[in-house]
Amino acid sequence: MRRWSVTGLHVTLKLAHMGGWINLIMVVVLTIVAVVFALNNQDDVIIHIPGNWQQTSVPVFVLAFVPMLLGFIFCAVSGWGRMSVMRRRSEQLQRQNQALERELTNLRNQPLDNDVQL
User: Fold this and answer.
1) What is the spatial distance between Cα 33 and Cα 40, in angstroms, rounded to a whole number?
2) How far apart are CA 54 and CA 15, in angstroms?
3) Which of 60, 70, 84, 111 has the greatest number of CB atoms lying within 10 Å of its CB?
4) Does residue 113 lie within any of the structural domains?
């Protein structure tokens, strides 16, 4: 368990232990679906590419898996780039927050010069 402190209020968050099991189940189900799809689509098709390209014969499931794989790689690279930007921003905000907390602590610890008499 991790504990974060937000202005004195402690918020306890349980790490995503359950999310790991859900991810595992999803991966297993999608893998089974992909294998069944590949086994049911073994027929060869001839690909005609315009120009002087060579005609090739590939199974149908390859025509489905290659674009999915390319899309996955594109999304992974794009997501990695976004995460690195967010990580840098998060580190910058944490440093700024620490500086402000130090300044607040210093201000709280200063003696009061102008005490008001009631």
Assistant:
1) 11
2) 53
3) 60
4) no
Domain of residue 100: give its range: 2-108
Place of tokens 């997501």: 79
Report the interhelical angle of 17-40 vs 60-109 (nearest 10°). Answer: 170
* Count of domains for the chain: 1
* Whole-model pTM over 0.90: no
Compute CA distances 61 → 35, 49, 58, 67, 75, whole Å: 10, 18, 8, 11, 21
Strands 9-13 and 44-47: unpaired
Element (H, E) at 40: helix 17-40
Assess if residue 117 is contained within a domain: no
Quick one: tokens of 84?
């690195």
Q: Where are the beta strands (DSSP E) in the chain?
A: 2-6, 9-13, 44-47, 56-59
| 114 within some domain | no
Counted residue by residue, the chain has a size of 118
